[in-house]
Amino acid sequence: MKTIDIRNYRSLLMSAALLLGAGLGVNSVLAAESGRDQAALIKVLPQSKHSLMDGLRQATKPPEVPISAKFEFDDAGKLSLSVYTAEKGISVDPEKNVLKELSGSPAQDKWTPEVEVFKDVPHVARSSQQLTLMSISRFTLVDIVAKAQKEHGGTVLSVAPMIRDRKPVFGVLMADKGKVTEFHYGVLDGNSVPVGR
């Protein structure tokens, strides 16, 4: 069982306050994927030569740890695989860590992402929350993606730890047969959690 010292607890409270101050909803990561965007994403997903799992594994270079990942459209409207990481690992508080995004086209034989270190409040706030939630879990995003694929099949579009209905969960969006479904897994126990409860 992990213990959280008072510095980590303060960090958790500061992250929550920062999120509220930034006006971000607790469902911001998955809510950003609107139905129209999801439909367009599903159409171009066959172009990808890499899975979300591939991106997560490539981005895991200890102590660096992925804290969320998703397929999305880049600024040019092209398919992108994005993995968000905490460079110094989950045991280093957000304010002392390096929170960043690795993103690039998954349509090439090799995924060669560009790196952006976050400086703006919305990205730092969201990443801080994700880092804090990852630090209290014994599961990696690879664990959760593998579990979701085994239980539901289909293609994982995104995975992110979040607070949903005052509970810490991993939110997973999966595409199968032209439809997108959201699944939740407990951050603390990894068990399936009914969506909307």
Question: What key phrases describe this protein's structure?
Answer:
197 residues; 6 helices; 33% helix
Descriptive account of the structure:
The protein has 197 residues and is an alpha+beta fold. It has one domain (6-193). 33% of the residues lie in helices and 29% in strands. It contains 6 helices and 8 strands; from the N terminus they run H-H-H-H-E-E-E-E-H-H-E-E-E-E. Strands 4-3-2-1-5-6-7-8 form an 8-stranded antiparallel sheet, with helices on both faces. Strand 7 and strand 8 form a beta hairpin. Helix 4 (52-59) packs antiparallel against helix 6. The radius of gyration is 16 Å and the shape is globular. The two termini are 26 Å apart.
Unreliable stretches covering 5 or more consecutive residues: 1-33
Number of domains: 1
Going by helix content, strand content and strand pairing, the class is alpha+beta
Written as H for each helix and E for each strand, in order along the chain, the element string is HHHHEEEEHHEEEE
Strand order of the largest sheet: 4-3-2-1-5-6-7-8
Helix count, DSSP H or I runs of 4 or more residues: 6
| Major pleated sheet | 8 strands, antiparallel
Q: Which helices and strands appear, and what pairs or packs with what?
A:
Elements (H helix, E strand, L loop, with lengths): L5 H16 L6 H4 L3 H10 L7 H8 L5 E9 L5 E8 L12 E6 L9 E4 L3 H15 L5 H12 L2 E10 L2 E10 L2 E8 L5 E2 L4
Antiparallel strand pairs: 1-2, 1-5, 2-3, 3-4, 5-6, 6-7, 7-8
